[in-house]
Design goal:
Bound molecules: 1,4-dihydronicotinamide adenine dinucleotide, 1,3-dihydroxyacetonephosphate
Largest sheet: 8 strands, mixed
Low-confidence stretches: none
Strand content: 5-15%
Structural class: alpha/beta
CATH class of the largest domain: Alpha Beta
Strand order of the largest sheet: 3-2-1-4-5-8-9-10
Order of helices and strands: EHEHEHEHEEEHEHEHEHHHHHHHH
Distance between the termini: 48 Å
Mean pLDDT: 96
Number of helices: 15
Shape: globular
CATH topology of the largest domain: Rossmann fold
CATH architecture of the largest domain: 3-Layer(aba) Sandwich
CATH superfamily of the largest domain: NAD(P)-binding Rossmann-like Domain
Radius of gyration: 20 Å
Helix content: 40-55%
Number of strands: 10
Length: 344
C-alpha cells in the first residue's frame, strides 16, 4: 500500500532511504535540519553535501519544519545520528500521529545513559511505542543504496506486524529486507561493529595486511557477541546480516566513515583533525566510549574496544595498541571451552 512517509534526517542515510521509499511509490517528506539544504533538495533534486552523485526522485519533498514533516504521517523513519536521537524525539513528540509506525536506522548508543536507540525513543515518546517500533540495520552503505546496487538489510521489532509492515514498505528488487525478531541484538550488533571498523581502518592505515584485518573482524565479532549476549541479544543474530554482514561491509568498504576515520588515525592524524576532515558522523568514536563503559558495567572482556578507547581518548598510539593486543596472555579461542576465563 502506498503511504505518506516522513524521513527525519537528510544526511547520507536518510537521503538514501528516502530515495528507496520514493522509488517504491511512497510520498516522502524529508526533514532537513538546514533550510538551505531543504531548498536545494526541492529545487535541484540533489543533496550535494551528503550524496553528490545522486539524483533524487521528484516525490521526495524536503522541509525544515519538523511539524510539517511528521504531522498526520502514518510512517516516520528516523535517520539522525545517535547523539541527536533524544532531542529530535522530544521535538517531534507533540506532532506525531498516535498510531504512527516508527522506524529507526541509527547505529549507536546514547553515551550519557548507555541506552539503545529504541530505549531512548520509548522514553521520549511512550513505552507503548515499542509495539509500533522497528529498527532497520545490516550491511548497507548509502552511496550504493542510492544507486540501486543490490543490498540486503534486516528489520527487527518486538511486534511481528510492525516488522512485516516495515519490510513491505522498504523491500524492492534491489533492496532485500529480511526480518529478525531480536531487536536488542540487531541494535547492539549495528552499533558495535563501528568500533571494529575504526580498528580495521587503523590496521590498514598502519600498513598491516589481510591477516591483521581478518583477526580484527573475527576477534571483534567475538567481543561484540559477548557483550550483546550479556545485554540480552540472541547469539545467532551476530552470525546474520546485522552482525557479521555489517561487520564485513564496514571494515572493508571505502564508503565507510568509520573505516576512513580509523585509516587516518592509523596514519598518525589526531582525532580532532580526523573528525573535522570527515564532516560526517563517525558513530564508532562515541560508541567506543559507550561500549567501554558498558563492558566495565557488565564485566565483559572487550580487549579490542579497550585498546581503541586508549587510542581515541587516552593518547595511546595505534602501534602501541597493536603491541598491547598481540602481547596479551595465552588464552582459549572459544570461551565456552573455559567459561571461568572468559577472555578473548
Ligand atoms: N551513511 C550510511 O551509509 C549509513 C548510516 N547509518 C547510520 O545512520 C545514522 C545517520 O548517519 P548518516 O546519514 O551517515 O550521517 P551524516 O553525517 O551523513 O548526516 C547526519 C545528518 O544528521 C543531521 N544532524 C546532525 N546533528 C544533528 C542534531 N543535533 N539534530 C538533528 N540532526 C542532526 C545532519 O544535519 C545530517 O543531516 C548514523 O547512526 C549512522 O550510523 C546506518 C547505515 C548506513
Ligand atoms: O552502517 C553502515 C553500513 O552498513 C555505515 O557505516 P559507516 O558509518 O562507517 O559509513
Amino acid at each position: 500500500m502506498i503511504q505518506n512517509v516522513a524521513v527525519i534526517g537528510a544526511g547520507s542515510w536518510g537521503t538514501a532511504l528516502a530515495s528507496v521509499l520514493a522509488k517504491n511509490g511512497h510520498q516522502v517528506t524529508l526533514w532537513v535540519r538546514d533550510a538551505q539544504l531543504a531548498d536545494e533538495v526541492n529545487q535541484t533534486h540533489r543533496n550535494q553535501k551528503y550524496l553528490p552523485e545522486a539524483t533524487l526522485p521528484v516525490n521526495i519533498v524536503a522541509t525544515s519544519s519538523l511539524e510539517k514533516a511528521v504531522a498526520g504521517k502514518p510512517v516516520v523513519l528516523l535517520a539522525v545520528p545517535s547523539h541527536a536521537m533524544r532531542q529530535v524525539c522530544q521535538s517531534m513528540a507533540a506532532y506525531l500521529d498516535p498510531e504512527v509506525l516508527l522506524l529507526h536506522a541509527t547505529k549507536g548508543f546514547e553515551l550519557e545513559s548507555l541506552k539503545r536507540m529504541s530505549e531512548v525513543i520509548a522514553e521520549e515518546l511512550s513505552p507503548q511505542i515499542t509495539s509500533r517500533l522497528a529498527v532497520l540495520t545490516g550491511p548497507s552503505h548509502a552511496e550504493e543504496v542510492v544507486c540501486e546496487q543490490p543490498t540486503t538489510v534486516v528489520v527487527s521489532s518486538e511486534s511481528e506486524e510492525s516488522m512485516l509492515r516495515a519490510q513491505d514498505l522498504l523491500m524492492n528488487q534491489n533492496f532485500r529486507v529480511y526480518t529478525n525478531p531480536d531487536l536488542v541484538g540487531a541494535e547492539i550488533a549495528g552499533a558495535l561493529k563501528n568500533i571494529i571498523a575504526l580498528g580495521a581502518g587503523m590496521s590498514d592505515g598502519l600498513g598491516y595486511g589481510d591477516n591483521a584485518k581478518a583477526a580484527l573482524l573475527t576477534r571483534g565479532l567475538a567481543e561484540i557477541s559477548r557483550l550483546g549476549i550479556k545485554l540480552g541479544a540472541m547469539p545467532l543474530t551476530f552470525a546474520g546480516l546485522a552482525g557479521v554482514g555489517d561487520l564485513i561491509v564496514t571494515c572493508t568498504s571505502k564508503h565507510s566513515r568509520n573505516w576512513r576515520a580509523g585509516y587516518m588515525l592509523g596514519q598518525g592524524k589526531r582525532l580532532d583533525e580526523v573528525l573535522e576532515q570527515m564532516g560526517m558522523v563517525v558513530e564508532g568514536v562515541r560508541t567506543t566510549h559507550a561500549a567501554y563503559a558498558l563492558a566495565r558495567r557488565e564485566q565483559v572482556d572487550m580487549p579490542i574496544t579497550q585498546v581503541l578507547y586508549g587510542i581515541l581518548f587516552e593518547g595511546k598510539t595505534a602501534r602501541q595498541g597493536v603491541e598491547e593486543l598481540m602481547g596479551r596472555g595465552k588464552t582459549f579461542e572459544m570461551s565456552y571451552l573455559n567459561p571461568e576465563a572468559d577472555r578473548s
